[in-house]
């Protein structure tokens, strides 16, 4: 069975093709037959394409267009044409899985794409205006290229958080908000779900018996508290702007600040949106970059704003871990994942330091040694500390496989 996965973002797209042999999923993620990225950020109107395959062939080229459907058509041709060909033709693709950021209240699990589902994704674009429209574009492009007979599946980022208890999900505004769908949805759910299952594998424990705090720390950041295999609390909310300090996003701020800026400073809604989503977080405080590596380099050069940015980032991270801990009432493992979580030893060390009172004991040598899918707590630590390489694409492929297997 060959499953194509599309993970579309606002300015980039990741794609890969997995082959699953036999009647059972492998215990660990296999290498994709084919992987591709498209990046529109380097030059205006130019799509930069990179392809690599399991047979060792690669491709790098640029296309002068912003038309996603044309880029997608060209990209898919590299699957069966030229030196990067790994299949004989499009008829070998059994299913296509798409990451869809927002499923609202209607979609709590992966579903096969229908006209009704496409209409819902379009409607929910009001809640995820940056992502849902491009997710839908990808679905429609695949339908045009491969035909309607190839099953497509929508895997929702919000689904893993869909069983949040009302006390965690509902904001303390007027109850009319609830009736209008204003509630905590949570995001990064595909990553959180993958890491929860991978943590159970690494610990050789039943996921249903584990209490986990998963720290997805990248340019976007979120935590989840996982109990009985489900997210029972999370930091992102109605939108991905809530919660932790991030690369360019502010995370949680006093809503009174926004009222003040609107009333007293003459801000427009668009100005607020720009500052909160694009000009805040590490970038906004440091004045250097949204990239933690550049912030750390600036700290080494005695940049006081960069140091303040890191201090706020750690303070917010520790505070939110504490709130997840309170929701769980205990902790078996603390998990770090995504770009910062997987690669920054200093973030892991400083985050863990505050929780030594729990008996959490970090192995500092292991922490510094670029761990991947490893436990970096010392043997007698009462809390395990895991670094897990998140594999959203494989998680999406698994969801498609399960859907096809149960038809």
Number of strands: 14
The CATH topology of the largest domain comes to Nucleotidyltransferase, domain 5
Give the CA-based shape: globular
User: What strand order characterises the main sheet?
Assistant: 5-4-3-2-1-6-8-7
SSE series: EEEEEHEEHHEHHHEEEHHHHHEHHHEEH
CATH homologous superfamily heading of the largest domain: ATPase, nucleotide binding domain
Alpha-carbon distance between the two ends: 15 Å
Number of helices: 15
Describe this structure in words.
By secondary structure, the chain is an alpha/beta fold. The chain has two domains: 2-156, Nucleotidyltransferase, domain 5, CATH 3.30.420; 204-387, 2-Layer Sandwich (Nucleotidyltransferase, domain 5). Helix content is 37%, strand content 19%. The protein has helices spanning 68-77, 115-123, 132-146, 166-169, 175-179, 189-203, 255-264, 269-278, 281-286, 292-300, 304-328, 338-343, 345-353, 364-368, 392-405, and strands at residues 2-8, 12-19, 34-39, 47-53, 58-63, 95-100, 111-112, 152-156, 211-217, 221-227, 230-234, 333-337, 374-375, 384-387. The protein has an eight-stranded mixed β-sheet, with helices on both faces. The longest helix has 25 residues, at 304-328. It is globular and about 55 Å long.
């Amino acid at each position: 069975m060959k499953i194509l996965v599309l993970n579309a973002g606002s300015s980039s797209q990741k794609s890969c093709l997995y082959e699953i042999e036999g009647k059972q999923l492998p215990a660990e993620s296999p290498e994709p037959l084919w992987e591709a990225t498209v990046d529109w950020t380097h030059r205006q109107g130019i799509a930069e394409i990179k392809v690599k395959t399991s047979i060792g062939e690669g491709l790098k080229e640029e296309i002068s267009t912003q038309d996603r459907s044309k880029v997608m058509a060209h990209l898919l041709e590299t699957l069966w044409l030229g030196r990067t060909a790994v299949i004989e033709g499009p008829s070998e693709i059994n299913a296509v899985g798409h990451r869809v950021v927002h499923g609202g209240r209607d979609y709590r699990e992966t579903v096969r794409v229908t006209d009704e589902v496409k209409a819902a994704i379009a409607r929910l674009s009001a809640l995820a205006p940056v992502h849902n429209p491009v997710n839908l574009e990808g679905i429609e492009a695949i339908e045009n290229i491969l035909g309607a007979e190839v099953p497509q599946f929508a895997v929702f980022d919000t689904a893993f958080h869909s069983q949040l208890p009302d006390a965690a999900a509902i904001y303390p505004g007027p109850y009319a908000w609830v009736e209008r769908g204003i509630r905590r949805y949570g995001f990064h759910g595909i990553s959180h779900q993958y890491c929860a299952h991978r943590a159970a594998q690494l610990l050789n424990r039943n996921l249903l018996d584990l209490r986990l705090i998963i720290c997805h720390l990248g340019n976007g950041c979120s935590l989840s508290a996982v109990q009985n295999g489900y997210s029972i609390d999370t930091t992102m909310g109605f939108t991905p702007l809530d919660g932790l300090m991030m690369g360019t996003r502010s995370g949680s701020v006093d809503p009174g600040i926004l009222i003040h800026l609107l009333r007293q400073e003459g801000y427009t809604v668009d100005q607020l949106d720009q500052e909160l989503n694009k000009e805040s977080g590490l970038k906004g405080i440091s004045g250097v970059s949204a990239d933690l590596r550049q912030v750390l380099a600036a700290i080494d050069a005695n940049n006081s704003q960069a140091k303040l940015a890191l201090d706020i980032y750690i303070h917010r991270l520790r505070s939110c871990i504490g709130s997840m801990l309170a929701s769980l009432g205990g902790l078996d493992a603390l998990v770090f994942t995504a770009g910062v979580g997987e690669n920054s030893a200093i973030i892991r060390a400083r985050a863990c330091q505050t929780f030594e009172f729990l008996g959490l004991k970090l192995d500092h040598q292991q922490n510094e040694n670029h761990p991947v899918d490893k436990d970096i707590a010392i043997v007698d630590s009462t809390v395990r500390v895991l670094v897990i390489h998140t594999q959203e694409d494989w998680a999406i492929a698994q969801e498609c496989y399960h859907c096809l297997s149960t038809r």
